[in-house]
Amino acid sequence: MSDTSHLNLGKDGSEIEMQNLLDEEDTSKSSLDVEDVLYNGETINLYPLNYQKVPLVRFQILASLLLFMVFGMNDECNGALLPGLTEHYGVTKVQVANTFILQVCGYTLASLLNERVYRRVGAQGAVLIASGMCIVCFTILTMRPGSFYVYLACFVPLGLSIGILDSACNVLFGNLEVHKNECMGILHGVYGAAAMVTPPTVSYFVEFGQWNLVFLFPLGLSLAGFVLAAFAFKTETANKYNYICSISKSDGDEEHPSFFTLLKKPAIFLYAMFLFVYLGSEVSTGAWILTYLMEVKHGSYVPMSYVTAAFWLGLTVGRLVLGFVTRRSFRNEYRASRFYAGMTGVFYTLFLLLSLIDSQSTFYFVVIAIVVFFAGVFIGPLFPNASVVALQVLPKNLHVSGVGIAVALGGCGAAALPYAIGLVTSALGFGVFPLLCWCMVALVNIMWFMYPKLIKGHDEYL
């Protein structure tokens, strides 16, 4: 559990900073990295979230990276599978879009249950339960369900499991003691890389009439993540989580505040609303741009899947590269994201203007691919940076619950807004798709600029 960073307690129960220990004793001894505390009859292992000193943290990082690849493939699969699903099941695009809204139900459950799950089974139990649900659902999807309703039903538990896992991974990486920005960029870059390779991969499976076999990839990753997490999170028990919450809460705060109490806090509410719109714009772009290029611009399926992949490639590059740029070129993560959000708006504006040109030339599609690539580059780091900022302004006892609610509600945006775009474009035509994406990105910019006005007392981070 990532809330253990910087916490070590002596036998008298008083808090001792890890840095003080390092100053006083030889850092080469493993005893400095791990402290045992007795709580509720259980010996709890506390250690700094420093992968350079604690080998177990490396395995937690690796498990998180595997599971984030699952998220990327899952978010992009249904948009890329649209032609195969409509043909195989004889359903409409709007019916396929129901997969997005059903994931909203799962994400909503995650926002309500995330903190309770941690209290009862700890981080290890939460990660194992969630990855286990992924294994079951992807196994069913791999078997090509005979009924479209069975296919749809799988996305409720998938939304729930991804909401839990997303929160766990963001809290872990956001609390790392070294290379936090770089690692957070890599985590979210892995998501983008998985989403990037999904459209071209799916296109070939659809061409050969074996669309269901594409789910073997997230299934294999879920299995690997489950096995690795069982070991990596072995010390992250319910007692450890409850203990961390009890000693790190601020005066006057509840140890386990309710859902609505958390949402009343400006830092959590604004973070949740930002992720709702941000993830909605990101996933909507990736999920529907292929359909837009085929229906409105009359492009061919396989070449247009590569244009779609250009967006996810840009997002991956942005998260991997700009994670290293942020700390070196900007005062803090918030200031960096103000610049990145503005540049995202510029390239979405170019995409909107290009949509007004009636052309089907190869050069035209290359230009679109370049524009959406750079749109992805600058939109990519907004999520990981927002997570770092949230963890900076929230007390430790609100990290899991606060980030859990925000990420889960953000996941609702990743499901609800693509669904809404499916409904609007079904009624008005896919020609309005670039305008809808531009509006969402404009709203992302507005909400990010509101942070310093609504969150007080954290000027060093804003």
TrEMBL record:
Its main location: membrane. It holds the Pfam family MFS_1. The chain crosses the membrane at residues 56-74, 125-143, 149-173, 185-206, 212-233, 268-294, 306-326, 338-357, 363-386, 398-421, 427-451. Keywords: Membrane, Transmembrane, Transmembrane helix, Transport. One of its GO terms (cellular component) is endomembrane system. InterPro entries: MFS, MFS_dom, MFS_trans_sf, MFS_Transporter. GO terms for molecular function: transmembrane transporter activity. Belongs to the major facilitator superfamily. This is LAMI_0G06766g1_1.
